[in-house]
């Protein structure tokens, strides 16, 4: 499992120009079963994505298609972790 932390490197108005395309990209990754959750940071300096992928390299390749990455709007930090303790509702994450 991975946490992807995006930090905007440009002004919000530039981010807003590509937000619709970014949301479409997110929708495709949710449909593919790669992304589990996503949302804005508070304050709005970027976003967070929870993802499942076979490897960090595979996830990095998937992220190259994000319009925020394509247009150099954000820095991406990828943190891999192994869930060892979860609620009953999230037990499926322990097998990832």
Describe this structure in words.
By secondary structure, the protein is of the alpha+beta class. The chain has one domain (2-83): Dimeric alpha+beta barrel (Alpha-Beta Plaits), CATH 3.30.70. The chain has four helices and four strands; from the N terminus they run βααββααβ. A four-stranded antiparallel β-sheet has the order 2-3-1-4. The longest helix has 13 residues, at 19-31. 19% of the residues are buried. The mean pLDDT is 95.
Task: Give the structure's gist in a few sentences.
With 96 residues, the chain is α+β, with helices and mostly antiparallel strands. The chain has a four-stranded antiparallel β-sheet.
Could you list the spans in which at least 5 consecutive residues all have pLDDT below 50?
none
Give the CATH superfamily. Answer: Dimeric alpha+beta barrel
Portion in helices: 25-40%
Structural class by SSE content: alpha+beta
Mean pLDDT, rounded to whole units? 95
| Secondary-structure arrangement, i.e. CATH architecture | 2-Layer Sandwich
Shape: globular
Keywords:
4 strands, Alpha-Beta Plaits, four-stranded antiparallel β-sheet, 96 residues, alpha+beta
Set out the fold topology.
Layout: E1 2-8, H1 12-17, H2 19-31, E2 35-40, E3 46-51, H3 56-63, H4 67-70, E4 74-80
Antiparallel strand pairs: 1-3, 1-4, 2-3
């Amino acid at each position: 499992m991975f946490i992807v932390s995006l930090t905007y490197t440009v002004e919000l108005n530039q981010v807003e120009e590509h937000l619709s395309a970014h949301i479409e990209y997110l929708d495709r990754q949710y449909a593919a079963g790669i992304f589990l959750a996503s949302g804005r940071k508070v304050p709005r300096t970027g976003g967070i994505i929870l993802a499942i992928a076979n490897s960090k390299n595979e996830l990095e390749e998937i992220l190259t298609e994000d319009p925020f990455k394509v247009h150099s709007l954000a820095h991406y930090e990828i943190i891999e972790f192994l869930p060892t303790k979860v609620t009953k509702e999230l037990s499926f994450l322990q097998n990832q």
